[in-house]
Amino acid sequence: MHPTLLPHVKESIELIAPVTPPSPVTSNTKDAGLSLSSQDFKAARHSAALLNGLHVLAAERDALNHLHHVYATSTPAQEGFSTAVSMIAATVRKGGKLVVSGVGKSGKIGQKFVATCNSLQILSAWLHPTEALHGDLGIISPSDTVLLLSYSSHSTELHHLLSHISSSPLIAVTGHADAATNPLFTLFPRTAPSVVLPAPVPTPEKELFGVAAPTTSTTAALAICDAVALAVGQELHTDMGRVFGRCHPGGAIGKGHAEQEQRDGEMAKRKEETERMEMG
């Protein structure tokens, strides 16, 4: 197989110079009586792979820059973000939880979001939309808020779920930013507050990569979820770092937190002893 470049790699090359694109390896070369040595062919494949990888990284970077611009300049996006953070914080304060659902790659992002929230003591639970209709709907209590992830907002599984959660406050992370035309909000009458968190991408993945595999869209969704989790954590906790350390006692993170706690304790003890001595 000859090394090939993803669509728009040329544009990415201009941004990451001085990387030089590989010379094309085509059947024309062979027809002309020319051939590449094994070493040259491996080098060409290596260069093509690297350029393809850099193109993807550049596209992901552009998607995040675009997302930052949206939330830095769009009043509806800013208001939606603030409202979503307040809704989740209020839910947790009154003893409820955040229930997150999605399918496909969006579902994977949702599961990571739940893990991040729980590590910040933001009580959260994952709900698969199909399993929800086979008994798992019982995980949703009247005091909970539901967050759905779907770039297109046209996921059939989520539509089936929606008719059963019309009384739950709803947050949607989606590329379809207009709530007035978004099926997640318009398919069924709602009796509870609803908020859109836009997660658009500047260029369709099919156009960027020649395949509509979720890449930049899931990066955007993940970034918004991380932003929400940390913003809610800041609103709920006066010392989010200490809370996270208690929730994450394992691994290098847990070890680092334990060591910091020990240092803080020793420092407090020395301060106490110094104050006692100064008082006579």
What do these coordinates show?
Strands 2-1-3-4-5 form a 5-stranded parallel beta sheet, with helices on one face. It is α/β, with parallel strands linked by helices. The radius of gyration is 25 Å and the shape is globular. α1 (9-15) packs across α3 (38-73), α3 (38-73) packs across α4 and α5 (104-119) runs parallel beside α10. It has 12 helices and 5 strands. β4 (170-174), α8 and β5 form a beta-alpha-beta unit. Helix content is 57%, strand content 8%. It has helices spanning 9-15, 27-31, 38-73, 75-93, 104-119, 129-132, 156-162, 183-186, 205-209, 216-236, 240-247, 251-278, and strands spanning 98-102, 124-126, 145-149, 170-174, 194-198.
Quick structural gist:
By secondary structure, the protein is an alpha/beta fold. It has helices spanning 9-15, 27-31, 38-73, 75-93, 104-119, 129-132, 156-162, 183-186, 205-209, 216-236, 240-247, 251-278; strands at residues 98-102, 124-126, 145-149, 170-174, 194-198.
What's the layout of helices and strands?
Blueprint: H1 9-15, H2 27-31, H3 38-73, H4 75-93, E1 98-102, H5 104-119, E2 124-126, H6 129-132, E3 145-149, H7 156-162, E4 170-174, H8 183-186, E5 194-198, H9 205-209, H10 216-236, H11 240-247, H12 251-278
Parallel strand pairs: 1-2, 1-3, 3-4, 4-5
